[in-house]
Amino acid sequence: MISNEIFFLLLVGGAAFAFGLVMWRTLRRLKSDAPEYKQLNLGEVELDPEFMNSVTQRYGDSLELSDALDQVFEYLQEVIPFSLSGYVLRKGNDKLLYKANLLLGVSEVFVEEVKRRLSEGLKDKLGETTAHFSIEDYVRGGPVNESNPAAVRSFFSVPFYMNDELVGMVGVASVREHVYNDSIISTVRVIFGEVMHSLSILQAVVTREKEKLQTLVDGMNEGVILLDKDFRILVINPAVSSLLQQTQATDLNILDVVNYFSGTVPLEDTVSKVFATGGSEVFSEVCVGDKYYEITVIPISNEDKVIRVGILIEDRTKEEELDRLQREFSAMVIHDLRSPLSVIKGAADLLINRSDTISDAQKIVFLNQINESASSLLDMVGDLLDAAKVEEGKVELFKETFGLNNLLNEEKDYYYNLGQQRGVNLTVSLDDSVGQVSADPKKIRQVLNNLISNAIKFTDNGGQVSLFSKNLGGAVQVVISDTGKGVPDDLKERLFDKFVQGRGSEDKGTGLGLAIAKGIIEAHGGKIWIEDNQPKGAKFIFTLPYS
Question: pTM score > 0.70 for this model?
Answer without folding.
Answer: no
